[in-house]
Design a protein that fits this description.
It is found in: Cell inner membrane. With 413 residues, the protein is mainly α. Helices cover 76% and strands 6% of the residues.
């Protein structure tokens, strides 16, 4: 027994091999494969009807330099491709082979072919996905496992694909809403810094020949310019260190995340976008999990992880504990005090009618559209704000620099 466990614990290390060969028609083909050795790759190729001519292992440094990062968008596209392939009757292993060989991202290609190799070695699809937890979360793996057990894998993959596409869409909208104000501030700071360090000192040299007192506003700007010119390196280090420190603190401290998430929810417009996107994610995830036949209490765990806001995550985990004691979901939502009345009522109707997944899907659709509208409104609002902020900053500096010239003109006149 102990020997069997030890044997099972042995992990076969795989490498990336580039190969060239000829197919059954004699045409030259080439590609990449994952495997433990050159001989194993040749065996795999022969099984596929390819006569290997050259097989060489790629160096780790070369492969790492060539690989692109696997993004959540890549996973969403992979989900849809798998759903399409399998609903068209293409076998699982062949679907993975086709998608893996045709992918532009070598890292994604390696991962898909690694999943395929695991399946060929006897693992289930869900187990193979579970070996890549960085890209396939518990929700994804659980839904695929439910599809395998029920014999409706292609249907469940379709639901997974829709879920990933919807969540990716809303994530991009939220990112757009958060990036726009940040971009305005960064542009404003950069423009002001450039003017103070490079432009204002040129005017200061000019003003020295006037032999008259400068206006108070001009003196203030010149003083700012002197200070910025003398301390711009220190300021840059302080700002960079602060940003780096805050990002690290946000990653490591649950209390800091809780504080920032609460504050962000109260920010005008942006807070509304974050709130409604969290409600939409809650409803979309719950709908997908429940439709797949995952028990409600078990589904709530995945719903909490997908909330995207620690305030909602903690509230959903409390709701999960309450549901496990027999309380209705809609009552736990009311007690949480986070969810809008419309969402609570729709869930109540779903529980009474036995169509919770459908009601949650409608709630998700409604709030996803609300987020879309809010992001569009924010974009429309930010355009004149950008012009106003930059206009005030640049215009103020220009006026400060030209005031002495105007005064000199009045004296001469």
């Amino acid at each position: 027994m102990a020997k069997a466990k030890a044997a099972a614990a042995i992990v076969i290390k795989e490498y990336t091999f580039a190969w060239e060969g000829t197919d059954r028609k004699g045409q030259r083909v080439k590609g990449q494969s994952m495997g433990p050795s050159e001989s194993m790759i040749k065996t795999q190729l022969r099984k596929q009807g390819i006569n290997p001519l050259k097989v060489r292992r790629q160096s780790t440094m070369f492969a790492a330099a060539k690989k692109k990062k696997i993004t959540s968008s890549d996973i969403a596209i992979f989900s849809r491709q798998m759903a399409t392939m399998m609903s068209s009757g293409v076998p699982l292993v062949q679907s993975l082979e086709i998608i893996g060989r045709g992918h532009d991202n070598p890292a994604m290609c390696d991962m898909i072919l690694g999943i395929k190799a695991n399946i060929e070695n006897g693992s289930s699809f869900s187990e193979s996905l579970g070996k890549y937890p960085l890209y396939f979360d518990d929700l994804f793996v659980n839904l695929v496992e439910a599809g395998e057990k029920s014999g409706a894998l292609e249907t469940l993959l379709g639901k997974v694909a829709t879920y990933k596409e919807k969540t990716e869409a809303i994530k991009k909208k939220v990112k757009k809403a958060m990036t726009y104000p940040a971009a305005v501030m960064v542009v404003a700071v950069i423009v002001t810094t450039i003017l103070l360090i490079f432009v204002v000192p040129q005017f200061e040299e000019l003003f020295k020949g006037f032999g008259a007192d400068l206006p108070a506003f001009t003196m203030m700007v010149v003083g700012m310019s002197r200070w910025m010119t003398a301390n711009w390196v220190t300021m840059g280090l302080i700002i960079g260190g602060s940003v780096f420190g805050l990002i690290n603190l946000h990653k490591r401290s649950a209390n800091f995340r809780r504080l920032t998430d609460r504050v962000l929810l109260k920010v005008p417009i942006v807070g509304d976008i974050l709130y409604k996107s969290a409600v939409a994610r809650f409803a979309r995830t719950l709908s997908t999990m429940f439709a797949a036949g995952v028990p409600l209490v078990e589904a709530m765990e995945s719903v909490a992880k997908a909330a995207g806001n620690i305030v909602f995550t903690e509230a959903i985990l409390v709701m999960r504990d309450q549901v496990s004691t027999g309380q209705q979901l809609q009552l736990t939502m009311q007690q949480a005090g986070l969810f809008p009345n419309m969402a609570v009522q729709m869930v109540a109707i779903g529980e009474e009618s036995g169509s919770l997944d459908q009601m949650c899907a409608k709630v998700a659709d409604f709030y996803e559209e609300e987020v879309d509208n809010l992001v569009d409104s924010l974009s429309s609002l930010m355009e004149p704000m950008i012009m106003a902020v930059l206009g005030v900053l640049v215009g103020g500096l220009v006026v400060a620099m030209y005031l002495p010239i105007f005064k000199l003109g009045e004296v001469v006149g």
